[in-house]
Amino acid sequence: MDRPVHFEHYYDAARARGDWGQARHWLQQGARAGDPFSCGQLGLWLLLGHAVNRNDRSGFQLVRSAARAGLPEARRLIATLYALGRGVKPNWEQAVDWLVRGARSGDPDPARQLAFLLPTALAGERRALLESAAKSGDVIAQRRLQRDGQVNAAPRMDWRRIRQGASRPALIRGSIKTVSESPKLHQREAALSPDLCDYLICVAAPFLSRARVNDHLRGTELVDDSRTNSFAMLSLLEGDVVTTGIDFMLARMLGQPPKNAEPASVLQYSPGEQFAPHFDFFEPKAPVHAAQIAAAGQRVMTCLVYLNNDYVDGTTRFMNTGFEFKGEAGTALFWRNVDSTGLPDRSTLHAGLPPTSGEKWLLSKWFRDRPYTQVSTAS
Fold it and tell me: Are residues 197 and 159 in the same domain?
């Protein structure tokens, strides 16, 4: 009898040596043999464009094979891919179905996601999902249960009701108002619910790192004293079905195509941390930025969503007029970075001022003038 080939072992050994070509070889061999780990990892590489040419469709198919074989990480990722429409047409029902499969298998991550997608009418199911995830060590579920306290809802795990009730995050009723004419700034109160604000903070917290600035001379990102806050980008691996639903909801609110969006970032400012005056658009007169515009489009719109209340000062200041804004948790502030002709609007020069106490949390979302494709080099 032939001995089984341990593709994951050979992949790990090659990766430890930094031999990406050999690592790719073992993933390809394993995927051809139907090895779930190899299918999932090679699929991820194809989706990220890491050590291979990016191919979303092939990546999706390989991740789906791994998910069907029961790999928990692949089940989580395939749900996100269906929600995003990455490598496949967007299909919310399929995304929810894969979350349900994962939750029923005992995986706390999809159980927690489902809990945050359920309406208040399904409080019993929500409670049961949170308790299940919390018992398996999910920190976000544990925090939510602590905040809920003694909620008067008996846990109830009705999978049919859960599958039918898990809906896309939806805007609470409200209106948009203009808060500044120059630059033209718009505010939307209650763009996100308190639950979703807290969810974004919790999801982003483990991925926080020092924020960087774009060097328009070299085309690289670097750490600089002009920006001292932390951030976490919610890309394919950091985000999930819930954060994808939030992205789509904000795009609808702004009238922007979801496919034009860059991955959302969550920003965190501790006392004294700040982001000095800056523009969000790419400078067409800078050769490096001009190349970025040609390759991936101009950043035409910015949206900030304020995620918490418990900090002092820390406003967003627009430098030309001195206008300052600080929204309640869930409030969105948004503006266009270019004028009607597509040229940069220099009145949008703004700064993130430091809080004097407490932590400030924001969601930052940029939209390009064309479909945006991000190629990652993450391993």
Answer: no
| Total domains, the chain | 3
The CA-based angle 370-375-379, given to 5 degrees, is 160
Per-residue pLDDT of the chain (379 residues; tens, 9 = 90+): 344 568 998 899 999 999 999 999 999 999 999 999 999 999 999 999 999 999 999 999 999 999 999 999 999 999 999 999 999 999 999 999 999 999 999 999 999 999 999 998 999 999 999 999 999 999 999 999 998 876 667 788 999 999 999 999 887 778 899 999 999 999 999 999 999 999 999 999 999 999 999 887 777 789 999 999 999 999 999 999 999 999 999 999 999 999 999 999 999 999 999 999 999 999 999 999 999 999 999 999 999 999 999 999 999 999 999 999 999 999 999 999 999 999 999 999 999 999 999 999 999 999 999 999 864 433 3
What are phi and psi for residue 12, nearest 5 degrees? Answer: -60, -40
155 and 190 within one domain: no
Residue 99 located in a structural domain = no
- Whether residue 230 is found in the same domain as residue 198: yes
Distance CA 348, CA 344 (A): 9
d(CA 215, CA 221): 6
Taking the C-alpha atoms of residue 231 and residue 128, their distance in angstroms, rounded to an integer, is 32
Residues 218 and 73 in one domain: no
Distance, CA of 116 to CA of 109 (rounded, Å): 11
Domain membership flag for residue 223: yes
The answer to whether the CB of 187 falls within 8 A of the CB of 176 is: yes
Return d(Cα 261, Cα 266) in angstroms, integer. 15
Q: From 113, 141, 165, give the residue that closes a domain.
A: 165
- State the residue for tokens 């995620």: 307
Look at residue 378 and tell me if it is in a domain: no
Over the range 217-227, which residues count as b (16 or more CB within 10 Å of their CB) and which as e?
A: eeeeeeeeeeb
Angle made by CA atoms 125, 266, 87, in degrees to the nearest 5: 70
